[in-house]
Amino acid sequence: MANLLITGGAGFIGSHTCLALLLAGHRLVVLDNFANSRPEALRRVAELAALEPLQARGCGDWATADQRLLVHQGDVRARQDLDPLFAAEPIDGVLHFAGLKAVAESIAQPLAYWDVNVAGSVCLLQAMAAGGCRTLVFSSSATLYGHPEQVPIPEEAPIRPINPYGQTKAAVEQLLADVAASQPAWRIARLRYFNPVAAHPSGRLGEDPHGMPSNIFPLISQVAMGLRPVLEVFGSDWPTADGTGVRDYIHVMDLAEGHSATLALLLAEAPQLLTLNLGSGQGHSVLDLVNAFAAASGQPIPIRLSARRAGDSAASIADPGAAERRLGWRTRRGLAEICRDGWAWQQANPQGYGA
Ligand code: NAD
Ligand code: UD1
Questions:
Q1: Domain holding 242: CATH number?
Q2: How far is the CA of 68 from the centre of ligand 1 (A)?
Q3: CA 218 to ligand 2 centroid distance, Å
Q4: Which of 113, 145, 165, 193 is catalytic?
Q5: Which pLDDT tens digit goes with each residue over 259-317?
């Protein structure tokens, strides 16, 4: 059992990973400012891990009675929020999900992205160093690869981000390489996620985007639900089998289990800097996804073919071989399960956690 700090643990990927880590026996301290999430997600994590009842600790903070899950409202950019967490008890490792992730928003508000994603990571690393914790799993992204020259994409592919969001992920990856090189005690994993989608099969946890989603999966779910009239398909003239964009969609529970396996490796092996793609190695087109979701939901999904979206690539597919070799991990859930679980979440929570 490890004592772990999870930044951004109330978010989409963080909440599912918290559940996987609790089920693996770990004890968690979550820090989140709820900029893009709701406390309800963590209450449901506690419920799914059978950790109730909850006890208030003041200022919106709470814990489960057995102290296996502690939740603090706070900001990764604030040492006054971080330092007490390291002072209260030894932290064996940090999983750092907190960040901003919308590409279009990053183009409009680059300062916010550099501040939260880069300055927030610097602040966290400083607090870790001061608190004597040198084990970190970082949420990186396949967006680093920009327009890839080859698919499947190996980790050695050139890093060529094409928007401010990707630039901030590249900057933190470089920062982590510099930190790892500065002192051999650091155990750091940079995990490059492909396209995380779906939800916990219970329908209790899922993605709850604030405002208009930009990613395809929540949009398809909302069209199937009748909340939006039509899905716009961005480009039908890509050099792919059916002309629509191809992506490597990864079930969020597979991703969560990938984090659990990564942490186990970091804690078991000698200190190192590990860089891994987390994806399935399978590509699916927009039309594949629409058809699979229509089959899973039994609902019509009207589409409208439109122009390519600026910044998109034809295809992005992981070479997942390194993760398989190093972690003994691979995705287990395919497109039908992805759509089934995404639909269960959408149906049970048409307004997300806010209902
Ligand atoms: P999310 O927005 O659902 O979760 C991020 C969490 O961080 C939220 O709970 C948010 O409230 C919190 N947060 C934001 N700023 C914070 C701050 N200053 N201090 C403390 N907490 C803060 O996003 P997600 O999809 O779960 O993504 C998690 C991480 O994975 C992010 O770093 C993201 O860039 C990365 N990532 C996501 C995807 C994806 O498609 N979802 C793909 C690749 C990488
Ligand atoms: C996008 C971001 C990427 C980020 C990732 C996860 C861009 C250009 N890329 O990736 O940096 O890491 O989200 O947050 O924004 N599509 C439609 N109609 C829609 C929405 C999407 O046809 O309404 C298509 C896209 O053209 C693409 C596929 O669906 O082919 C997946 O899109 P999306 O879910 O936005 O993910 P990415 O573009 O891969």
A1: 3.40.50.720
A2: 22
A3: 11
A4: 165
A5: 999 999 999 999 999 999 999 999 999 999 999 999 999 999 999 999 999 999 999 99
